[in-house]
Amino acid sequence: MQQALRTDRERTLTDLYRQTFPVVRRHVLRHSGSAQDAQDVFHDALIVFYEKAVHGNLVLTAAPSTYLVSVCRNLWHRELSRRSRQPSAALLDEHAELAEAAAPEVAEAPSGSNSVLDYVEQLGAKCKSILVSFYYFNEPLEQIAAAHQYRSVRSATVQKFKCLERLRNAVRKVAATVLEY
Fold first, then answer.
1. What region holds the RNA polymerase sigma-70 region domain (predicted)?
2. Which of 8, 62, 106, 167 pairs with 113 at a CA distance of 20 to 30 A?
3. Under a CB-based contact definition with an 8 Å cutoff, are residues 154 and 165 in contact?
């Protein structure tokens, strides 16, 4: 699997997506989720899978699709647990606040295609550098940590994750606002 991801990443991930996503979507829909929830959970699991596979940390005892379905189920059950602890009125208030906060950002969103790179540009130089180095140039985190003068690789990993979360949130806010109109 690691070799397949390194040699033909796009095809391998597409095949995994086609094979696995319908199972994940069905599971999430049957357990109080939406199609968007299923996509979010699957994409998060796919990123974890890819990073582990590329860095050699992935140990499969079953088929890759089985592993992904298992990770997605765990992520979804964790999300359901988190949602059950949060009162629904608070969720509605939080959703309204996010929509109001996102409205000005829609006007500021890059015009045209709204590609991911447009949103990466808005994150700032440091996040842009980390994400582009890691995802586009496939630089190891050790090299990124050294280039940004982090004390450890773990610090670079945490910063990469924070930047990725900021990117996801920016895209989700704009998507949520667009869907409301």
1. 16-85
2. 8
3. no
Rg (CA), the chain: 18
In whole angstroms, give the CA distance from residue 37 to residue 40: 5
Distance CA 103, CA 173 (A): 9
Report pTM: 0.48
> Each residue's pLDDT tens digit in the chain (181 positions)?
667 766 777 888 888 889 999 999 999 999 988 888 898 888 888 888 888 887 778 888 888 889 899 989 998 998 888 878 765 544 455 555 554 554 444 434 444 445 677 778 888 889 888 888 888 788 888 998 999 998 888 888 889 888 888 888 887 777 766 665 5
